[in-house]
Amino acid sequence: MKKNVPLVPILFSGIIIIVDQITKALVVKYIPEGRVFARILGDFVWIVHTRNRGAAFSIGALSPQPLRFLFFICLPIVVLIALLFYYFKSERLSPILRYSIGLIVGGGIGNLIDRILRPQGVVDFISVNMYGFLGMERFATFNIADSAITIGEILLILGFLILEFHKPKAQSSQSEKG
Prior knowledge:
This protein is mainly alpha-helical. The protein is 57% helix and 11% strand. It has a three-stranded antiparallel β-sheet.
């Protein structure tokens, strides 16, 4: 580990994992699968117990077990290890990039725990009304880990855009020639 690598974003990953697993355990214990437990802000947000054996929007849920194991357990492990390696080896990561990696790692591990320990699928429980936007009545049900990953990905993109925008002109024109 390099000197002075900020650990707060990685500790934040741990908090995400804990909150994610506690909320999922509460959902599993107290809400029957398929049942809406609470409606918040009218019909805008539901707390509902669902399971997802695939990725986002249930992509790959009906794939054969070996394929799901490869894409939903092995590949995420490789990506998480690569992200952590990059986090600890890179000396020039901005705080926004470090926090984005922390969010992605925390959310990734949270869902990975479900994929390994809950063969029925990842526990999802937040459902948002889309009011017909993009032809959808409700957005795909998600969880705390999914939220952390999504926010982390947005921050990652913004972080790279900010870095690119603030890159000195001489440096960017040199990289275009090479």
